[in-house]
Structures are given as structure tokens and as C-alpha cells.
Amino acid sequence: MHLTDAHGRQRVFFDKPPIFGGGDALGPKATYPIVVTIDCVILRRTSDPDGNEVVTISTGGRPQATEGDRSEFDVRPDQLVEP
Prior knowledge:
The chain is mainly beta. It contains no helices and six strands. The strands form two sheets. The chain has a three-stranded antiparallel β-sheet with strand order 1-2-5, with no helix packed on it. It has a three-stranded antiparallel β-sheet with strand order 3-4-6, with no helix packed on it. The chain is elongated and about 45 Å long. The protein starts with a strand and ends in an 8-residue tail after the last strand.
């Protein structure tokens, strides 16, 4: 799964399909790309130098980010979905 964070950097995650909320839709016969979700917790809300809201979230380490043990990311508010 790819995520472009609030700073324009692409983050890549990997894990089993159920972690991404796609269920059976992520099987070998799926037509990609597919929009998926990642469970997260909002840690704080701040603003960037231009006054745009930035939300820092934590994935709790699941799914794994390809850059190691990183689990906190800055995202735009419009990237968040209420459960």
C-alpha cells in the first residue's frame, strides 16, 4: 500500500490483506489499484508553515512501513476516514 504523507513523501506499507481493510477484495483476481484503509490513532493536530492542518497519526506498527519500525506519520485531514 502507498500513502503520500502531508509533506509529499510516499510511504510504502506491507502486511496481510485483512490489515488494509480490503478483506477478500485484495485477492489474486482483484483489479488494482484498490482503495484501502489502515487503522490509526490521532496523536495531534498542528499546522504547517502555510497554515494547512497536519494530523500526526500512529499505526501502532501494523501494517509495517518499509522504512523500518516507523509507525507515526503526518497526513492531511482529508486522508482520514471515520470508522
